[in-house]
């Protein structure tokens, strides 16, 4: 009779020694407490990061049908960015389908995601009825060193919407429906002293693909007034001039971005598509002239774009083109004969943030009000509180 070996084979010293030698040859890792640069490079080549769960950029190696935190099953890849990845998941705890962000395993992105989570929880808690067009955050967990955040599942973003329309622009009636919802979100944020800091078409999503309801997403760069974390923010095409010029910013930067988005929805292309921050400023000056001294005198970066007399340094772009301040009007670019629409945009693009139209003022602008059917207009006016009306009178 053969007696089975019931001992743990790893307790055999010869076995253990042999195993360790093989592991050492495989990984080329010595027993030294501090690995050499050569060993670290070897580890990178073998993609051994976070016990093999991450790639060399700190992104989780996500696979379809895989689980996240033993709760979410990955059913579709939605996209990726500097933060990490976004996936569509089945939530086995609630039985629902959700969007999940898998944050990159880097301190910078984990901190930023933590701030976004904190801000969204605050905004959601103060909007129990979900009336202010801000994405809902559901839950979060930490799994294999990654912050996992679940959100409501939305549809395509406005950039994809414009692209699907062959970059031809859409009707003012549809733009108006989008504008009212974005402004309602911005007014809600302003009521809570919050600056989004990265408003752009990619961060405005349709609730459903064939309907006009939208929600604002991506509050990773956002901050409350008085608690600014970042000084250089916003995607370039939608960046307010005070950011380029190094002037302390307010909630007015979101209104600048909003104006740029509305213009792009109408034409199908960005209004200020600068290839650099210098050309970005040149595009703006081409339509609105040189910034007033009251703005330039606050700038910490004026020397980069202006001489000692506040005259702009006219710099050619990569194609050799020089843009002359005040040489064009916005109506020349968007080719629209609707004076109210042109005025609406111009009020979003005031150089001085103090003079820029606020979300509340925009919601009462003739371009918004005159384009609404009577039934919708009555509902629209109900959204304003008594304090809002007093503010408009002042």
TrEMBL record:
Signal peptide positions (record): none
Bias (Polar residues) ranges: 7-33
UniProt keyword terms in alphabetical order: ATP-binding, Kinase, Nucleotide-binding, Serine/threonine-protein kinase, Transferase
SMART domains linked to this entry: S_TKc
Cross-referenced CDD domains: PKc_DYRK (cd14210)
Positions annotated to bind ATP: 101
UniProt protein name: Protein kinase domain-containing protein
Organism: Strombidium inclinatum
């Amino acid at each position: 009779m053969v007696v089975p070996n019931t001992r743990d084979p790893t307790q055999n010293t010869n076995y253990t020694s042999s195993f360790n030698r093989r592991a050492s040859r495989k990984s080329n890792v010595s027993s030294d407490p501090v690995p050499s640069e050569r060993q670290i490079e070897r580890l990178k080549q073998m993609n051994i990061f976070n016990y093999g769960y991450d790639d060399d950029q700190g992104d989780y190696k996500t696979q379809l049908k895989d689980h996240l935190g033993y709760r979410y099953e990955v059913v579709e890849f939605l996209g990726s960015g500097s933060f990490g990845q976004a996936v569509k998941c089945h939530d086995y705890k609630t039985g629902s389908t959700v969007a999940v962000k898998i944050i990159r395993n880097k301190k910078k992105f984990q901190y930023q995601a933590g701030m976004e989570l904190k801000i969204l929880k605050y905004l959601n808690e103060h909007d129990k009825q979900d009336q202010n067009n801000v994405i809902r955050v559901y839950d979060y967990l930490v799994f294999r060193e990654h912050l996992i955040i679940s959100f409501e599942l939305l549809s395509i973003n406005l950039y994809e919407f414009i692209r699907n329309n062959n970059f031809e622009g859409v009707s003012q009636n549809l733009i108006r429906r989008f504008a009212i919802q974005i402004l309602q979100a911005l007014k809600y944020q302003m009521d809570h002293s919050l600056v989004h800091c990265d408003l752009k078409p990619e961060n405005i999503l349709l609730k459903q693909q064939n309907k006009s309801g939208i929600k604002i997403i991506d509050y990773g760069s956002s901050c409350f007034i008085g608690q600014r974390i970042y000084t250089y923010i916003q995607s370039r095409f939608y960046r307010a001039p005070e950011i380029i010029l190094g002037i302390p910013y307010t909630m007015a930067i979101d209104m600048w971005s909003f104006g740029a988005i509305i213009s792009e929805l109408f034409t199908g292309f960005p209004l200020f598509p600068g290839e650099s921050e210098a050309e970005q400023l040149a595009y703006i000056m081409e339509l609105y002239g040189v910034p007033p001294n009251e703005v330039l005198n606050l700038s910490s970066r004026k020397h980069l774009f202006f001489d000692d007399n506040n005259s702009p340094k006219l710099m050619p772009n990569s194609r050799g083109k020089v843009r002359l301040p005040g040489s064009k009007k916005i109506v020349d670019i968007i080719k629209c004969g609707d004076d109210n629409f042109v005025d609406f945009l111009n009020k979003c693009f005031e150089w001085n943030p103090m003079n820029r139209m606020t979300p509340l003022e925009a919601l009462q602008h003739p371009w918004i009000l005159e384009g609404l059917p009577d039934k919708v207009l009555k509902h629209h006016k109900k959204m304003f509180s008594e304090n809002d009306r007093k503010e408009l009178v002042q």
